[in-house]
Amino acid sequence: MAKVGDLRTLWGKHRAITTLLPYTVWQEIDGRPEVLDACLHAARAAGTLGFVWYGPSRFANTLPAKVTSRATILLSPHFPWCSLAERGDGLAQHLAAAITTVPDTKEFTQSIVDILSGDMIPTGTVSSIGLVVCGLENNANGAEWPN
Amino acid sequence: MDRPPPSALEDVRQRYLRVFSTYADFHGHQFYHVMNAVCCLFIPCMGRRSFQWNGYEPSTCEHAIVAHNLVKITRFKCSRPRQKAKVPRWILRFALHSLSLDSLPPASVVADPLLIIAIDLGCDLSRIRAETSNERCICVRLMNDALTPN
């Protein structure tokens, strides 16, 4: 049985964790966010940011139509951004919109940092998200967005 | 589960090979995915084990039958003595495909892909009978056994 903290075992089970992720999105929509939390907790415990969402890229392509803002932000570090060429821009815009609707918590902030620091994320996506994050920061400080 | 005698399995495999070539190509066939799954069972060393389930959009009835039988196969394969409980990737991909459809199948169908994942995670499912399992029950079990902190 795999336990969080048993990193080698969890690494060996990453495909199963990946397979479960689309189901966690449906559970999130049905008002059961704990399933997504548990799944992401297992992924993070294994120190495997970036690997998780590689399998179900087809599902990632259709995410904007169905997923909540919270799930979008928490799952985005796991997207295979480099292989989402045809929908990458749409996802980035959806993600940027999601960022503006969630509260400023450590969990979401960490997720955004993980997204922006990912190796495979396209420059355009970084720009889209970066603009929103900077805009929020400026608004929070009461500052004007520079021309 | 009751294990069929090896001679019976070999007999079925021989009969399959008498009908289909080892390199039979089912592209374009109405039952492409199911035939590939059958091939994976009887000719396990073939490259078709990497086949994808993309485009497989069965009726609810067919989906339920295929999912239920793949759970049986998974249980059978993972119950072999002296072998690590490892679910074949093509079966795991079936679970992924089932859970990634544009709309989630009925709970009775979803339970089976969840069982496949649970088996791959190494959950103890001895108290869950395949005939009576349901989505919620398996989901809670998955979280308790494999995904939540100690």
Give the gist of this structure.
The complex is a heterodimer of chains A (147) and B (150). Chain A is an all-alpha fold and 147 residues long.
Describe the structure in your own words.
The complex is a heterodimer of chains A (147) and B (150). Chain A is built from eight helices and no strands. Chain A is mostly helical and 147 residues long. With 150 residues, chain B is mainly α. Chain B has two domains: 1-51, no CATH class; 58-150, no CATH class. Chain B is 55% helix and 0% strand. Chain B has six helices and no strands. In chain B, 30% of the residues are buried. The model of chain B has no long low-confidence stretch (mean pLDDT 81). At the A-B interface, α2 and α3 of A face α4, α5 and α6 of B.
For this entry, give a set of tags.
heterodimer, A: 147 residues, mainly alpha, 59% helix, disordered C terminus, B: 150 residues, 2 domains, 6 helices, 0% strand, globular
Q: Helix segment count of chain B?
A: 6
Number of domains of chain B: 2
Number of helices of chain A: 8
Percent in helix of chain A: 55-70%
Structural class of chain B: mainly alpha
N- and C-termini, Cα separation of chain A? 56 Å
Average of per-residue pLDDT values of chain B: 81
Summing up helix and strand content along with how strands pair, one would put the structural category of chain A as mainly alpha
Termini separation of chain B:
30 Å
Give a count of the beta strands of chain A, DSSP E runs of length 2 or more.
0
Oligomer: heterodimer
User: Order of helices and strands of chain B, N to C?
Assistant: HHHHHH
The rounded Rg of chain B comes to: 16 Å
Q: What sort of overall outline of chain A do the alpha carbons produce when their principal axes are compared?
A: globular
